[in-house]
Amino acid sequence: MASRKKRRHQYAVYWAATGVDDYGEQTVSAPIELKVRWESEEQETTSADGQLVLTTEVVWVDRVISSGSILWFGKLIDLPSPLGGVDLLKVSAYIEKPDTKGRNPEQTIRLVRYSQTLPTVE
What we know:
5% of the residues lie in helices and 52% in strands. The protein contains 1 helix and 9 strands, in the order H-E-E-E-E-E-E-E-E-E. Strand 7 and strand 8 form a beta hairpin.
């Protein structure tokens, strides 16, 4: 497990998907900072709703991250305000792969470009 932590030496700001508001628009939680391993890698994958999508990034994480959540590469302290022009990415898929002993799963997410503004923060 220590080697998994050593591989996560980068940072991402994470807004967890929390649901939808009264108007049917997505909502997210307040941002938190995660230690991650982030790599650019294009790959076709199946999204949570069964659609074939082209993902542009793969990120190793330390927790379950639901589809629809939003990430930004960088530290929370460096997040510009307002967020205009920031490259946000949306979680398209969460993948959990057990290790050879079936104990410490490797957790990754696949990301797609997110061209909309940040959803409402709850």
